[in-house]
Amino acid sequence: MGPTPEQQAREQIDYLLQSAGWVIQDMDNFNLSAGLGVAIREFPVKSGFADYMLFVDEKAVGAVEAKPVGTTLGGVSDQSSKYIADFPENIPHVRMPLPFAYESTGQETYFRDERDPEPRSRRIFAFHTPESLHQRLRNEQTPARRIRTIQVLHL
To answer: What CATH number is given to the structural domain containing 144?
Structure first.
């Protein structure tokens, strides 16, 4: 008997996260100093278990909700929203709710920055690198916020 669709999705997500520079670890044996970006599988939060909890520079920054291939990701954002809002406050984190949420089947991935004026999940081609999220955290002015402040030129 082969792997379930959920296991296949997680194997692909593991590969995608590793390709983006994340160190993937299991909850029962993790080391946040193993790299700039650490993704911990099956991380416990108040409302259940996040499929992956993302840590940058040893602080929680977001979560990944994994779904089997074929799942419509549009309706999954509620689940990832719960995980980033229900993060345990006694564990180092950058802010509450955590700023970044991903939903992924391993073939399709959506991303949301909760700091945006109107946060919504958008399809992306690859997971962000830990360095990229680290850079985003240094700038409170998200790309969506910057777009809102652009002055319209009248010619």
So the answer is: 3.90.1570.30
